[in-house]
User: Fold this.
Amino acid sequence: MTTLVIASGNAGKVHEFGELLADLGLETQAQPEGLDVEETGNTFAENARLKAEAVARATGCWALADDSGLSVDALGGAPGVQSARYADSDSARIERLLRELSAAGAHDHATRSACFTAALALANPQGEVVLEVESICPGLILEAPRGEGGFGYDPLFFVPEAGLTFAEMPHSQKAELGHRGRAFAALKPQLQALLAQERQ
Assistant:
């Protein structure tokens, strides 16, 4: 395993994974352009599995997929697995989320609790999932965006333990506290053990 295909067309996500994987001696690359995997799962874990399997089979390489998203309590867990499809741009997704929270009467911290979930799945070149992990990062949805960094819902997602939104955090802090960073921290020792086996 020298090449690991990140099962995503999202440049922000591919870059974030490249940084998280930097010290493992792997060459990471984005999935081939035009490869579109239909995310028909009902959970983040199911969608991660679907993407890892499909991209591994299509490329003949090891593939790492994540499915992640935002679940807001006042919206019954929405946008959930539909997070990326909630609207057609980051700004439109943020706008819709704020509009729906307002319509739900969620106007204070007590009613704006949310969490980001990340599920990771690693598939071998035959398209079999060999590792899976899932982690969450709890937080709150602010009434207006804050910060210039990140992508997606990051400017609205406030992490109380840091006193910052994801968009205000330096990369290192987001990698440590964020859902994807936490999931990756759980995956990394298992991935290192797998790499050691592969290299024997």
Q: What stands out?
A: Residues 179-199 form the longest helix (21 residues). The helical segments are 11-20, 44-59, 90-103, 171-177, 179-199.
